[in-house]
Amino acid sequence: MAASHNLNLCSQGTALKALFTGYLIVVAVGYMMALVQIQFTHGMADGEFGLSIDDIVYSYYGKRSGSVLDAKLNGSMQVMAPDEDRAKILTWVRKGADEQAFYDNGIREIMDNRCIMCHSAESGMTIPDFTKYENVAQRAETDTGASFSSLARLSHIHLFGIAFIFMFVGLIFSLAAGVPKALKVTVIVMPYAFLLVDIASWWLTKLNPHFAWFVIIGGGAMAISFAFMWTVSMYEMWITPRRRRDDSRDALLDE
């Protein structure tokens, strides 16, 4: 008579463990790449390396004492042009961003040499097209942060995408038999709860900069829950079997 199969990570076959492990490794690398991307898109908003509350405020609420171009050229785009070119653009912005001066003072030439390789329709990137003066002039206005349309677009992408990621990470983790039920349920629910906190705080920060702290809290809590589920899952698949040869626990029944 065949022995009953135990529903826990420790007792799974090598093929299924390889499938789970491959997924977890790729998702972990993707998570790290997302952190790098956040550093480049938001972490330099205040002109200094590292994500800070000021970076969050400038990204969503805006730096309302200046323009978008001002904030970008002194922040994340600072490395894209030499000081002389950045100074010319900023001087043009602070003098009113006049259209004639845009061409007469060499701003058009600087944009062509330094910016349009990315800021053009041909690049395929979802960023402003700086081949047109109107788009440049719009970014020379007071910086009010992310637009509501961009927040709506990013919100639905993150809600769907991150929810799917944690669905499968959580499913693998749910087969871990060595975690108390209360802790397991808490860790599985955490990323969904704090994903909603994170997304909601983008919109709230757009209205009031004091909510920027919730962006940090939401993102940090998701990262902690991901790291915990990832580590426990890998441990129970590859380390636990060496210490516990016969694991009869059923993780799905909270045994």
Can you describe this structure in just a few lines?
Helices cover 62% and strands 0% of the residues. By secondary structure, the protein is an all-alpha fold.
Give the tally of β-strands: 0
Question: Roughly what is the average pLDDT, rounded to an integer?
Answer: 89
The level of helicity is 55-70%
- SSE run: HHHHHHHHHHH
Largest sheet: none
The assigned structural class equals mainly alpha
Distance between the termini: 24 Å
The number of domains is 2
Beta-strand proportion:
under 5%
Main traits of this protein?
255 residues, mainly alpha, 2 domains, elongated
Write the layout of secondary structure elements.
Elements (H helix, E strand, L loop, with lengths): L13 H28 L11 H8 L7 H6 L9 H12 L4 H6 L2 H8 L18 H7 L8 H26 L7 H27 L4 H27 L1 H4 L12
Structural commentary:
The protein has 255 residues and is mostly helical. It has two domains: 9-43 and 146-253, no CATH class; 64-139, no CATH class. Helix content is 62%, strand content 0%. It has eleven helices and no strands. It has helices at 14-41, 53-60, 68-73, 83-94, 99-104, 107-114, 133-139, 148-173, 181-207, 212-238, 240-243. Helix 1 packs antiparallel against helix 10 and helix 8 packs antiparallel against helix 9 (181-207). It is elongated and about 80 Å long.
